[in-house]
Design a protein that fits this description.
Layout (H helix, E strand, L loop, with lengths): L1 H15 L79 H12 L12 H5 L15 E3 L4 E3 L1 H10 L12 H20 L3
Antiparallel strand pairs: 1-2
Helix pairs in contact: 2-5
């Protein structure tokens, strides 16, 4: 019973406070000005002795957003920490090395990558024709293409043109593997020619 009178006294004190913010604060419902609320919505206008449930004993106290369920608490929402992410493809690799190993197999394949009977290795054995000495990262201008391209675009250009094959899908496991092997191959070159 004492708790009810304490609540009633607190509510009356809130009503008499001067300078309470008129705008509603979504992160602190109790900072709202109860004088601006409709009578039915004002918890302090209710007679705590005449209601069955004590607002302070409620499981989800409207005056304490931290006690609300996570989804209902506007202060707990963080769009950057969403539980479910949209994948770009089914899981493909557990490590960079696993991707590079598949890429090396594809790099050396002169039958499955196209109909011209050549592999990436046919043109790029021992780091040939990659201009790795220029130490430039993709995207960059490639004379053969006549444009500025990304690594993925360069891989697909070679597949379509010299190799007479089909381009790889942009989020495919195979394109990731080829790009991973190119990086590993370039790192070998840089280690070999380090000054």
């Amino acid at each position: 019973m004492m708790r009810y009178f304490t609540l009633a006294f607190s509510c009356l004190a809130m009503l008499s406070m001067q300078g309470v913010a008129e705008a509603a604060n979504p992160c602190n419902p109790c900072a709202m000005n109860p004088c601006n609320m409709k009578k039915a919505a004002n918890p302090c206008a209710m007679n705590p002795c005449g209601i069955k449930a004590n607002p302070c004993a409620m499981k989800h106290n409207p005056c304490n957003p931290c006690s609300m369920k996570k989804a209902a608490n506007p202060c707990a929402m963080n769009p950057c920490s969403a539980d479910a992410n949209t994948p770009i493809r089914p899981h493909a690799f557990n490590s960079f090395q696993e991707a590079a190993t598949l890429g090396k197999k594809m790099w050396n394949d002169d039958k499955g990558m196209g109909t011209a009977g050549v592999a990436c290795l046919s043109c790029h054995a021992d780091f040939d024709l990659l201009n790795l000495e220029k130490r430039q990262n993709f995207p960059h201008y490639v004379k053969m293409v006549g444009d500025v391209v990304t690594l993925d675009q360069m891989i697909n250009y070679c597949l379509l043109n010299p190799m007479k094959g089909k381009q790889l899908e942009k989020n495919s496991k195979e394109l990731t593997a080829m790009a991973a092997y190119y990086r590993a191959y370039r790192m070998q070159y840089l280690a070999k020619h380090r000054k």
